[in-house]
Amino acid sequence: MDRISLDELLKQADIDVAALPPAPTSPTDQQMRARITARPAYRCAVCQEGGSTARVLNTDQGARWLDLCLRHGLAVHEPSPRMPTTMEGILADLREALAEATAATGQTPDVRLWTDENGWQDMPMDEHHRYHVTLILDGRRARHGWWGVEAVAREKFTLWVGECSGKAGSRVILTDEHTGAVLTTWPQQP
Length: 190
Known about the structure:
Elements: H1 6-12, H2 29-37, E1 53-59, E2 62-68, H3 70-76, H4 87-105, E3 112-115, E4 119-122, E5 131-137, E6 140-147, H5 150-164, E7 170-176, E8 181-186
Antiparallel strand pairs: 1-2, 3-4, 5-6, 5-7, 7-8
């Protein structure tokens, strides 16, 4: 779901804020944690799925709880002005922090990345693992690997394209993990 303002979400979902449950005006951290971790979970005011975020709205009728599922909660979340808002920016910040940690300790930390598309995946960050080739079959990652030399990664990309050519739902992607740039894909994206 794309980012949307809270007012827009309330309007689109036709939420009557007066009907939301009363809340303390300034809930404590303990009250917020209790609301978010309650079992059974409070329902998202938009889609009625289990809520995992909560906030207090100050309305003309007093303070009201607004429970949202993770998807709707993230859609209305306002990022910090100093935080990156794109995947490329987030990865650049992560790489910078990893470089600092490596310089301070002499060891490269193991990092795992979660994406909705691929789930958990190891994400080596050193020069030997700069170029990442991913083979997707039927919408799921079937094979992937990292190489430190772009020419070698491109050879692997070409090899994997040849192996899956003609298979419906197949896709191969070559990414520069240091910049976050997709260098090439097969089939070509419009």
